[in-house]
Amino acid sequence: MASFVPEVGAELPPLAIDPISRTTLALFAGASGDHNPIHIDLDVARSAGLDDVFAHGMLSMAYLARLLTNVVPQQQLRSFQVRFAAITPVHGRPTCTGTVASINEVDGERQATLDLQVSLPDGTVTLLGSAVVALD
User: Pfam families from the xrefs (predicted)?
Assistant: First the structure.
């Protein structure tokens, strides 16, 4: 696990993702059961007015979950929510980031609330989210 100092304003070590390939999209479709052709069929994407296929929103959410579990064990995750903001194009290079927004005690447990996002190199934010994690 990456080192993480849980204090307000602290940033989680960013998670840079390799470019999203067509293979990644096909494999994720099979693993997730989401076979929506807009994610894997160029003709369908073009018929919808798009230049190309794009990543599943849940794939971006999975990458963001990996960011979390890189710094805290999964059993310390108390909540996780996201809002999809923009598409991630095929060949996009998402980066997942997070910042500690607050630290509170809830029912005797010290918890950190994290602000999360996934963005592309051009600054486009594709996913916004938050999570609450229990601290050691």
Answer: MaoC_dehydratas (PF01575)
